[in-house]
Structures are given as C-alpha cells and as structure tokens.
Design brief:
It contains 5 helices and no strands. By secondary structure, the chain is mainly alpha-helical.
Length: 129
C-alpha cells in the first residue's frame, strides 16, 4: 500500500505550471515586494538622500533628473511595490486578528489588495505628472 502512494507522488514540481489561488499570489507578491523594497530599495533611497543633502548643485541635479518622463515612469514600479506591500500588510494584519479567514473573504480581500494597490499607484502617478 505504501509503495502505491509513493508512486503517485510527483518526482519534481514545476512551480510555474501549478495554478496558485489568488490569496497565495498576493502573499507571494507581498514577500517579493518587501524583499525588493529592502534591497535595492533602501540603498538607493539612502544614496539619493545623500545626493540631496551633499550640496545645492547635487540637489538641483536630482530635481532635474526627477523631472524627466522616463525617470517618473520608472518610479511607478517601486511605488507599486510600496503600495502593494502596504495594502497586503494591512490584509495580513487583519488575518492575524482572525478577520477575513473564510475562503470567500480571503479571496475577496486578495482581489481588493490588487485593485487598491493599482488604483493608488495610478493616482500617485497622475499626481507625479
């Protein structure tokens, strides 16, 4: 009987072919966005802050760079990382408080995290332009 069970188990899993449920996707994106905010996010932020505080010329250089359309467009991705991480973190805190644990509620809150993160990113992008 035990040999029969072992023969049906997959020998290797291709995680890209397995369809994950939406709460799992949101959780994975939460972890990825947090890792990307930590590195290279924090070092880049500190480097930019150092450039801003170094001299008036470097401050003007940073401001001139931030006015470029490609730079503004490139800042939308880290902005989405931050906003998604924030929304997913609030969702995880609610789950830790035993709020929204039912399957339908978990799926709905996952959907809302993606929607609100996207809307906040678009709204912030409109304000940047």
């Amino acid at each position: 009987m035990e040999a029969k069970l072992h023969s049906k188990r997959p020998k290797h899993l291709n995680l890209f072919k397995i369809k994950q449920p939406l709460p799992a996707v949101v959780s994975i994106l939460h972890r990825i966005s947090g890792a990307l905010l930590f590195f290279p996010g924090i070092p880049l932020l500190l480097c930019g802050l150092q450039q801003l505080l170094q001299s008036p010329d470097s401050f003007d250089g940073i401001l001139k760079g931030l006015r470029e359309p490609l730079i503004k467009l490139g800042l939308l991705l880290p902005l989405w990382f931050f906003l998604h991480h924030l929304c997913a973190g609030i969702r995880h805190l609610l789950l830790d408080l035993q709020i929204g644990l039912a399957l339908t509620q978990a799926r709905a809150s996952s959907r809302w995290v993606l929607i609100i993160g996207f809307i906040l990113t678009v709204a912030s992008g409109v304000l940047l332009w």
